[in-house]
Amino acid sequence: MSMLPARHSLFDEFFRDFTPGFLVKPLHGDALPSQIKMDVKETGEAYQVEAELPGVGKEDIHVEIDGALVTIKAEIKQFDQQGKDERSLRSERYYGLVSRSFQLPQEIDRDAAGAKYENGVLSLTLPKRRNSGVGQRLRIE
To answer: CA–CA separation, 118 vs 48, rounded Å?
Structure first.
């Protein structure tokens, strides 16, 4: 094993960054993000989540809550539009599904949770489930 650091030329860096994206990017529109970028903040009573989902219709966003596990899924559809008096010579479509799941420290009250989608940002308000403070005793048979 060599103790010397690896040396790369400027062209190696350029082609490493350029080539993979160049081969897989769609010919129009933005590429499907590899992961949903988000911020999660905690207040005394709830968690606030802001997730970036640019170019997604709100009908194509699905949020699932199971206890403390939250899953955000979005289906991305990009189409080339064609006028009624035009003849289509080439049509490109880009479909994709991106999702992200994360575990919060405390279970969520699903009935009180809220979601809002505006300007490509999904905002979730996820109230913490209140514990009754009294443990439930198990009956031993």
So the answer is: 15
